[in-house]
């Protein structure tokens, strides 16, 4: 084969360029410190680099999340320390002092004032913030758990009570006794009460499965409810001045294991009251009378509870005993999804009659049925009125149609905001599929039951007033002059002293019993708050473990990234010398060929 000069020249230049590119590639790896300059240099290394860099950046973000989560939880931990180790602990010590029988009535009142100041501070601690957000309010970080000022907000509140929330304690009432003097008289036996979070309600509460009767605290029978009414339905006495629901001891002994949900309306709150938007399932009425377009057809979902005693008849269906119950409203006839009646297993509905298997009442005292109703009577704009008047537990507007049958947005016919405190954990992600809740909820620390217990204790002590000597002297002087024969000054003084001793003794005894009861309740609430702090501590320990792992992962990912991308300088230097020597050798070898070609050209 004949080799021409052009062929030799092209081959020579190709080899020289190849050696030059190889030398350039090695020099670039040394200059940049990276094994590849572009993905096409090594697609496998490039693919691994993307994965490792993603892992490094994710790890950095996770560690920032840990820092933010730690900051949140450290502030929460500090709040818990103030509440548990300082405030509640000191309140308990004061309660021990108050329960001491050696303290006088005046000394006990001074102790109560100190306790009230410390308890108010617990409310301030619950309003702790982090970055402008309330720590204990769940997702509603703009709502304080405890109101800081008086307001006129209007809420429909649903408060749940379990079996453990039935308090058994001695209650006292101020009654008019001998000589027209107001005296504290204790009820003859211990009473069972449920304590609502508030007083001053806009009407009696609705308790499914119970008849609620309203009594003033001054009524002699306020704390002595019957077990049932004439229809066999359990009875509760509602005392608006104290926010108590009083149960008969037989009713308390058969209290539903699943508890009861009490619904009531409360308008107007004082500074220091707990915020329903943070504590309960509640609806805030923004406007009491919404503007409803003329001809609007409203459809509500009604939840009604039944007990065995409310049965109006029985039937036998396929060998199963069925109890019959009457619905308050006629169900709305529709096939629309979501508006079909929600019945217990095995139950049937025919018009406004529901048939429920009798055996279901062996495990449940109250059974609910939810059904749709078209334009219910009473006041359809106020669900509380419907519940109070029609003995139903829940009312929810689900559909609104105008005169032309076009669906209207519900906010056009119902001006309120709904609040639900379920699933309010603020979770940070600390690694893939690893989330930890960094917040604690006010409703689990300063619970509504704790607030009600302390509120009742303070209101009771503040309302307790022992007659002064001057008032008694004036009263017995007028009373004695009307007697036949009139009382002497010695007899008036004798009655004044006897009344002072009697009132002081009864007031001291009443406060002593209240202190004894509060000691038990404080221990219970302190245990609950300490348990919440322990749960927070457990999450912090878990976060420490996650942080340690993230720090180890950071080192691991960094090493992997370096091994995958970074240049081995020793190896690269050796390759550079080799490539450089090869390049120079190719230049020297081909220089002779160039000389020979030049000589041939000159000839």
Short description:
The protein is an alpha+beta fold. The chain has helices at 5-32, 43-99, 105-126, 249-253, 276-279, 383-390, 448-463, 469-481, 489-565, 569-602, and strands at residues 129-130, 133-134, 151-161, 167-169, 172-176, 182-186, 191-195, 211-214, 235-239, 244-247, 260-269, 281-285, 297-306, 313-317, 320-326, 348-350, 353-357, 367-374, 394-401, 416-419, 427-431, 434-437.
Q: Which helices and strands appear, and what pairs or packs with what?
A:
Elements: H1 5-32, H2 43-99, H3 105-126, E1 129-130, E2 133-134, E3 151-161, E4 167-169, E5 172-176, E6 182-186, E7 191-195, E8 211-214, E9 235-239, E10 244-247, H4 249-253, E11 260-269, H5 276-279, E12 281-285, E13 297-306, E14 313-317, E15 320-326, E16 348-350, E17 353-357, E18 367-374, H6 383-390, E19 394-401, E20 416-419, E21 427-431, E22 434-437, H7 448-463, H8 469-481, H9 489-565, H10 569-602
Parallel strand pairs: 8-9
Antiparallel strand pairs: 1-2, 3-11, 3-12, 4-7, 5-6, 7-10, 9-10, 12-20, 13-18, 13-19, 14-15, 15-17, 16-17, 21-22
Helix pairs in contact: 1-10, 2-3, 2-9, 3-7, 7-9, 8-9
Q: What is the number of helices?
A: 10
Q: In one word, what is the shape?
A: elongated
> How are the strands of the largest sheet arranged?
4-7-10-9-8
Give me the secondary-structure category.
alpha+beta
The average pLDDT score comes to 82
- Helix coverage percent: 40-55%
Question: What fraction of residues sit in β-strands?
Answer: 15-25%
Distance between the ends:
23 Å
Rg, rounded, reads 40 Å
Main β-sheet, in a few words? 5 strands, mixed
How many DSSP-defined strands?
A: 22
**Which runs of at least 5 residues are low in confidence (pLDDT < 50)?**
174-180
